[in-house]
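REQUEST ID: PR-0412
SUBMITTED BY: lab tech R.K.
PRIORITY: routine
TASK: structure prediction, single protein chain
INPUT:
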Amino acid sequence: MKDLTRDSIVSHILQMSPPIMAGMVTIMICQLVDLYFVSGLGDAAVAGVAAAGNAGFLVNALMQVLGVGTVALMAHAVGRKDRSDANLIFNQSVALSVLFGLLTLVAGFALSRPYMRAVAADEATVEAGTVYLLWFMPALALQFASQVMASALRATGIVRPSMLVQALAVAINIALAPVLISGWGTGYALGVAGAGLASSIAVFIGVLMLLGYFLRLERYVAFHAAQWRPQLRQWKRILNVGLPAGGEFVMVFIIVAVGYYVLSVFGPAAQAGFGIGMRVLGLIQMPALAVALAAGPIAGQNFGAGNGVRVRETFVKAALIATAVMVALLIPAQLAPGLLLAGFSNDRETMAVASLFLRIVSLNMVAQGLIFTCSSMFQGLGNTKPVLWTSATRVLTYSLPSIWLSTWPGFRMEHVWYLSIATTTLQAALSVWSLRREFDKRLALSPQETAVEPLVVEPAAPLREPA
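STATUS: complete
OUTPUT:
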C-alpha cells in the first residue's frame, strides 16, 4: 500500500501515470492490431469489427461501475486507515464481478446479431461483427475480474503489477492475432472469429496472472471466501458510486452509435474510416486519461483523510498536466494525421474518412482532457452523479441534432464532427463548474463530516499482516 496523503502530489501523478498509460495503451494497441490484421479481409470485416467493438462500451460501462466503486470506496478506507473496510469492499466487488461476467455472457450471445443489424450498413458487415462479438464475449466477461483486482491495487496507490499483466496479455494477443486471423504458420485462417478468440485467450491468461499476484504477493487486501456472500448494503455502497460512472460510458456508447448510424448512408467505407479514426484518437488521448486516472485515488485517499486542501491541489495539478499533454499531442494530429493512421486500411476512401475525422475531432482534445480530470476527481470524492449529468447533456446536444442534420439534402459527415467539438466544449465547461460546486459543498465541511458514513462491518477472516 502507498500512502498518497503525504509527499508531492505532482510526484504521485507522474509516478502513477506512466504505468496506467502503458496498461491502457497496450489494450488499445490490441484493438488496433485486430483491425490491422482484419483489414486484409475487406471493408465489411473492418466495419463489422469496429462497430462490434463499440458494443464493448456497454460492457465497459458495467466494468466502470465496479472499477469506480471499488477505487473510490477503497481509497476512502485507505485514507481513513480502515483496512477492514477496504478488504470488505474488495471481496464484495469480487462477488459482483462474477455476477456481471455471467450476465455479460448471456446478453452477448443473445443480442449480438440484433445489435449489429441496428448499426451496420449491409449484411456482410452484420455477419462479420456478429461472429467477432460471439468469440470476443468471453474476453469481456473475464475482464470484470481483472478490473476489480486492478482497481483494488490502484486504490492503494499500486499500479505497476496490473500494467505488467496487461502488457503481457496484450503481447499474447498480438502474437495470436495473425496466427488465428490469417492462419500464419498453421494455414487455417479463422478470420474475424480469430480476432475475438485471440483476445479471449489473452484476457484469460491475464486474469490468471493477476490472481497469482494477489495470492502470492499482495498483502494489504486479500481474497476471503467468507466475505463473498452477497451483502446488499455493501453492494449499494459500490453501486451508488459506480452506477453514475457506468452511465457515463453508456452515454459514450450512444454518441459513437449515433456516429455509426448517421454515417451508414455513406456506406461501409465511411463507417470503417470512422472506426479507425476513433481508435487512433483514443490512443493519442491515453496519456491525458492516465494523468486523470492517477488523480482519482490521490483525491480519494486525501478526501478519506479529511484533507480538502490536497484534494483541490490534486485537481489543479492534474488539470494543468493533462492540458499540457493534450496540446502537445494535438500537433501531430493536425499536421500529420495520415502518419498516425498508416497501415490500417488499403482502401483510399476509408483512409480519407479517417484522416478527415482525426483532423477535425482532435480539436476537442484539450476540452476532453478537462472532462477526464473532472470525472476522475468526482470518482475520488465518491459522488459521480454530476458526471452522468454532464454526459447526458452532451448526448442530448449531440445525438438529436446529428440525426436531424443527417436528413438534410446537403448533409456531409464533417457536419456532425464539428458539432462534436461544440458539445464536448460545453461538457467540459459544465464539468469544471460542477466540480467547483462540489468542492465548495463537500470540502468546506469538517473532516468528520466529510468522512464516509461509518459502517458496522461483518466479521471477516483474519488478515495477513503486511510484508
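NOTES: Confidence is low (pLDDT under 50) at residues 446-467.
REVIEWED BY: pending
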